[in-house]
């Protein structure tokens, strides 16, 4: 029995990650704006002793509203509501460094960390795509390297803001009439290339010091950024060999950046479709694939691959002359993953759309609870993952099935906690991470 245990994160997306999930009889097509739906999902994940749940986000309409539920509630607001409906599970929100300001975002995450008792996490994204750029008055998206340079300065400013209050700045001396110690407030007075931020944050330092820092880019710029800042990395890998290579590379980069390799947790995504038999699981997968409207998939794939409309043939393979990743300014790593998947398995466009319909490039797996548990254990024990981003194809049923049938197997194998009691109270503690020291407080001298 291993002492190292899995970290599980529930990646929640309206009716499920499969693009056709909303068409099933069980699904509520209005779930994406229903608080009760998300409360139910959060409580299911908490029953399964997941470390955290995660909400993706972007400052643009993600897809054609004809294709799938496209509305998305603002995640920090939604997670604040979920904080009052749960007790233990971590709450991770996506927020962009390209289209936010450090002061406002640092304040929002500090607030969520206070209100949740230390359960906040930030999935840091740089936001690719011309659509988002045009929503903020830009003619085109900033270059890939430029977005990451801005993100690095954004994080540096946010860290200064979260540390602008020392932990014991609040004195609360009623007799003396002194509420706080001004000497323990440290305005950033930051002047940089992208940001100018003068004053201290107007929220005291939060229970975790600052939220768990999560990152999801797998490009070269993304991995350099993760090695410097990230404490958890959400990644998409199609094969265990690619996952092992990514895991080893990121851990090595983290050490080279002067950090402990165990202080960054690597969580690939998996989209499980679970049946009591393998045949039942495969039948569920076929039902979902049969509900895909391929015209939507073609348009989306042409945009992602930077192709002119009408280029792709459903029953043909991808063109042989696609541009290399170096020529892509958008989501570089996802572009490469999709092209390599299509080339490696010689998929037609129709087959590729079917594969992407479930997980947009993440690993999809149809099988019994034991087979799903076997796959998770193999990746975990083989140096490919510290845990997984669980991405149910259909919600809430897919998450309920995972918690009711896969979680008990993982617990019986000693891979997953049976309760939250000894795992610590904050999200950082659940991930086995130390609370960061305030940069303005000198470390105690060694005796």
UniProtKB/TrEMBL annotation:
Keyword Ligase: no
Family: Belongs to the NtaA/SnaA/DszA monooxygenase family.
The keyword Flavoprotein is annotated on this UniProt entry: yes
Protein name in UniProt: Monooxygenase
InterPro entries on file: Diverse_substr_monoxygenases, Luciferase-like_dom, Luciferase-like_sf, NTA_MOA
The Luciferase-like domain, residue ranges: 28-384
Domain of life where this protein originates: Bacteria
Gene that specifies this protein: ssuD
GO molecular function, one term: monooxygenase activity
Binding site for FMN: 57, 94, 144, 148, 218-219
NCBIfam families registered for this protein in UniProt: FMN_nitrolo
Assigned keywords, A-Z: Flavoprotein, FMN, Monooxygenase, Oxidoreductase
Species lineage: Bacteria, Bacillati, Actinomycetota, Actinomycetes, Kitasatosporales
Membrane-spanning segments: none
A Pfam cross-reference name: Bac_luciferase
